[in-house]
Amino acid sequence: MLEVNGLSKTYGEGERTTRALAELSFTVAEGEFVCVVGPSGCGKTTLLRCMAGLLPPTSGSVSLRGHVVAGPPEQVGFVFQEYSRSLMPWLSVRDNIALPLRHKRLGKAERTRLVEEAVESVGLTGFIDHFPWELSGGMQQRVAIARALAYEPEILLMDEPFASVDAQTRADLEDLVLRVRKDYGVTVVFVTHDIDEAVYLGDRVVVLTQPPTTVQEVLAVNLPEPRDQVETKELPEFAHLRAHVFRAIKRRQELRPAT
Amino acid sequence: MAHALRTRRGLGRWAQTWAGVATVLVLAELASRTGLLPQRYFPPVTEMFTALFAALGEPWFWLATGQTLQGWVLGLGIAALLAVPAGMLLGTSVVRYRAFRAVIEFLRPIPSVALVPLAILVYGAGLESKVFLAVFAAFWPLLIQTLYGMQDVDPVAVDTARAFRLTRAERITRVVLPGAVPYVATGLRISSSVALILAVTAELVIGSPGLGREINAARVGGAADLLYALIIVTGLIGWGLNSMFAAAERRVLHWHPSQRGAR
Ligand SMILES: Nc1ncnc2c1ncn2[C@@H]1O[C@H](COP(=O)(O)OP(=O)(O)O)[C@@H](O)[C@H]1O
Ligand SMILES: [Mg+2]
């Protein structure tokens, strides 16, 4: 469904350039949950912005159902890492979620239904008329997820969405994402630097190298469904997979010449 | 309980403010009465207020106040109509901004008072001169604030709008502009004070009708108490206008970090 072909991105011109992505290829199948894991600064945000059509690649391409992505496609919903900056502080939760729906040519009733359903599915029903800054970080990220869901995307791109919430909230939000993915039948590309999170959530894990960034390995995760924060993480397969990803990243680091 | 506490603390702050004001007034009164300050130039505060209350009953006083406020409102209004759209145009295009930056940086530091002779030459001594000076002075803070506001838009917010396919026009009206409103509000408040200052200056220096001209007239007539009374009035007008803008900001910008919880 989604194809990343020889994607590379170099920032800047002339002397001062940063080669963020060297050459990246992988595919995402319909309905799949793909986690992209890599160390900080390896270009995960760059990759996701290219996939969302927010950033033109230097070479290579991203295709969605065979069409090259040149601008933000309407099938894509995006959840940003910086939730507090991605929500408009002057809009209530309801209006924030309704903001992207202006183009959807929906009736008023239909729009209200979409917003309220999305709010309910992220468990914020009582907070629909609050302002984002009246909510905790975890709740704000729920609003951002609800906004993406109400948009009815076929693909959800999530950029380290839980990197700045506490551990318990994070576990809750991970399970929330697994649930809404089923409810809304959406394909997910989830970027994280957290190996446990990638293995816990993903059907497959794309392991990135250090910069200049390429795909180190693509790993199938065959853990039993539904995933459970305690039981899944106790399984020997889970420990095995996370060790495998860890070694893959570490091995690559050791191959790099010391500088 | 919490409510009672808050009320008492609120009352306390109110009492502190007035205690400070009263102290200064009493000291000024004593300084004048005891001859510490020459009464001829510095009459007792009670006399200033007596003159002020007498003036409140005079039609000329209200006419002059109206004329000063007219200069203020026209100056600020025209400046806002010019500066906010100009700031929006410059703030949404790096090319336009670069093209005009040098011109702005040259014109902005010119003290408006330096334009007094030009104003007299072109507009004479009437209302137009006053408005011209007030517009020139009030234009720059508003332009700069609007410009900053447009440029300070959060890139994540813009990315969000783009990712969800808002058009360029929608990104400006729904994301950039609301984000710039706090800056424009600050600009309005600054420009309001500046417009008032320039209105009174024009009345003093050029003799445009208004409170400034009456202050001068009081000086010429040797009415020191009235002179002070009118100065106090200009101060009260400035304070009142500023409070008005501050109150409007609290309402409109209730979402902004500087106003949260102030409702
Ligand atoms: N707009 C930009 N201009 C220049 N360099 C950038 C820009 N954005 C990111 N980079 C650089 O690209 C590299 C990858 O950044 P990023 O994609 O944010 O990584 P990650 O999300 O994995 O932490 C970093 O070295 C970063 O400094
Ligand atoms: Mg990132």
TrEMBL record, chain A:
Recorded hits in SUPFAM superfamilies, A to Z, give: P-loop containing nucleoside triphosphate hydrolases (SSF52540)
What protein name applies here?
A: ABC transporter
Q: Does the keyword Flavoprotein apply?
A: no
Keyword ATP-binding carried by entry: yes
Q: Which Gene Ontology molecular-function terms are recorded?
A: ATP binding; ATP hydrolysis activity
Which keywords fit this entry according to its UniProt record?
Answer: ATP-binding, Nucleotide-binding, Transport
Q: Mind telling me which Pfam families this protein's record contains? A: ABC_tran
- Per its UniProt record, what PANTHER family does this chain match? ALIPHATIC SULFONATES IMPORT ATP-BINDING PROTEIN SSUB, TAURINE IMPORT ATP-BINDING PROTEIN-RELATED
Source organism superkingdom: Bacteria
Automatic annotation (TrEMBL), chain B:
Q: What GO biological process, any one, is recorded here?
A: transmembrane transport
Q: What is its main location?
A: membrane
Q: Which InterPro entries match?
A: MetI-like, MetI-like_sf
Q: Does the keyword Transport apply?
A: yes
Coiled-coil regions in this chain?
none
Q: Does the keyword Transport apply?
A: yes
Which residue ranges run through the membrane? 44-63, 69-94, 106-125, 131-148, 226-248
List the protein's name. ABC transporter permease
